[in-house]
Write a structure and sequence with these properties.
mainly beta, Methylamine Dehydrogenase, Chain H, 4-stranded antiparallel β-sheet, 32 strands, globular, disordered N terminus, BamB, PQQ_rpt_dom
């Protein structure tokens, strides 16, 4: 049974890092034994009479998925297609309506150099896909950045960045921005792959392996750091703008003082919302970087902002709804404690999250009550579902991509 994403710490061996994770109940939990500390116990799913049964629009496979590795690969929708990838290097485009395969590319042999006798070597895809300018962009743990033609899958250009690309790039105004785990942030010409600018950020000796996805808004690149800060860079040339502290290092050990801002910031109107893996959820004025309000919540999962609400999943899998204007909590749900719950996605009148056993859970937006459940694949859901026009696109660890429609409930009064 899969218990958690492999959040490996930099500066430590894998063996030591995993030992730390298992010993630190404040970050992750993975036990289902009654003899263990209750704070580390994995919640069992209670019996549920579904309020509705979802419709599977179509279901396809994307290679072997990501297996047990930490990954933020997830399906995206663009140009009337659905694009997704596997860790080994399969990139697939499906027709949005029918699910028919349009093209497939293999990043592990993108130059067609592998002979019949050679074994396949994983491309280690971990960042993306993201689409723009009729292209699909992806990054790998080897520091490779690929641009593929969105219609054919043909390689348009390939570039390099120092460090692992384990989060999706961002694109706007013809510039592709790529963040790497080594602290290098690069702006590329999205048409040619030529480097336009480069920024080298300081990275603490001990950080969570996840890094922040860059977000582009109002001519700036907004990005979180391993130091618990949110900062902005000018998109055109990479100059630094404001920097604001989000995380708070309160412990006495290095582990307790890990305060990464790994979740992508969310821009909504003239405000930015961000959360630290240990510390705070904050609302920040986009123009100045001034903190408008701050609340003590910790997460490395994607947050969701919808109308006047913010939905978050904290480090223990508890789900919260807060007022966007003042940060006051509206409701919480702790029924999925320690189930490696994904970030929340808004679908119609519901909030949807996935878990490590491959279930999607539909929560009532107003009350937080779980009203329906659907299992995609027992290998687990690892990344926040993608939602476009109230259709869910989600992918399991084994590469099962499902497109799911949520029925609208019509009340008796209507």
């Amino acid at each position: 049974m899969r218990c958690f994403d492999k959040k490996i710490f930099k500066g430590l061996s894998t063996k030591k890092a995993l030992a730390i994770i298992l010993l630190s109940s404040s970050l992750f939990a993975c036990s289902s034994s009654d003899e263990e500390d209750p704070s580390t116990k994995v919640a069992e799913l209670s019996d549920l009479d579904n309020a509705f049964d979802v419709e599977i629009v179509w279901d396809r496979s994307v290679g072997d998925g990501v297996n047990d590795y930490f990954s933020r690969i997830k399906p995206i929708v663009a140009y009337n297609k659905v694009y997704s990838a596997s860790r080994e290097g399969d990139v697939v485009a499906f027709d949005k309506e029918s699910g028919d395969e349009v093209w497939q590319a293999d990043l592990s042999d993108i130059h067609d150099e592998r002979s019949f006798w050679d074994s396949r070597v994983s491309a280690l895809v971990a960042g993306g896909p993201v689409a723009g300018m009729k292209k699909v962009f992806l990054g790998t743990e080897n520091g490779d950045v690929f641009a593929l033609d969105a219609e054919t899958g043909e390689l348009i250009w390939q570039a390099k960045i120092k460090g692992e690309v384990i989060t999706p790039p961002a694109i706007d105004s013809g510039i592709l921005v790529v963040n790497s785990a080594s602290g290098v942030l690069k702006g590329f010409d999205a048409s040619t792959g030529e480097e336009i600018w480069k920024v080298e950020q300081d990275v603490p000796a001990l950080t969570l392996r996840g890094i922040s996805t860059p977000v582009i808004a109002s001519g700036g690149v907004i990005i979180g750091s391993g130091k618990g800060e949110l900062g902005v860079y000018i998109l055109e040339k990479g100059q630094a703008g404001w920097t604001t502290e989000v995380g708070e290092a309160t412990g006495s050990t290095e582990l307790q003082r890990v305060i990464d801002v790994d979740s992508a910031p969310v821009v909504f109107g003239d405000k930015v919302y961000a959360i630290s893996a240990r510390g705070n959820l904050v609302a920040i004025e986009l123009k100045s970087g001034r903190i408008l309000w701050k609340r003590q919540y910790s997460s490395y999962r994607q947050i969701s902002v919808y109308r006047n609400d913010i939905y978050i999943t904290n480090t223990r899998g508890h789900i919260y709804a807060l007022n966007r204007i003042n940060g006051i909590e509206r409701w919480s749900n702790v029924e999925l404690t320690n189930r490696s719950v994904t970030g929340p996605a808004v679908v119609d009148d519901y909030v949807v999250v996935g878990d490590f056993e491959g279930y999607l859970h539909w929560l009532n937006q107003e009350t937080g009550e779980i009203v329906s459940r659907h299992q995609v694949d027992s290998s687990g859901i690892y990344s926040t579902p993608t939602v476009v026009d109230d259709i869910i696109y989600t992918q399991s660890r084994d590469g099962d991509l499902q497109v799911i429609s949520t029925p609208k409930i019509v009340s008796a009064a209507q």
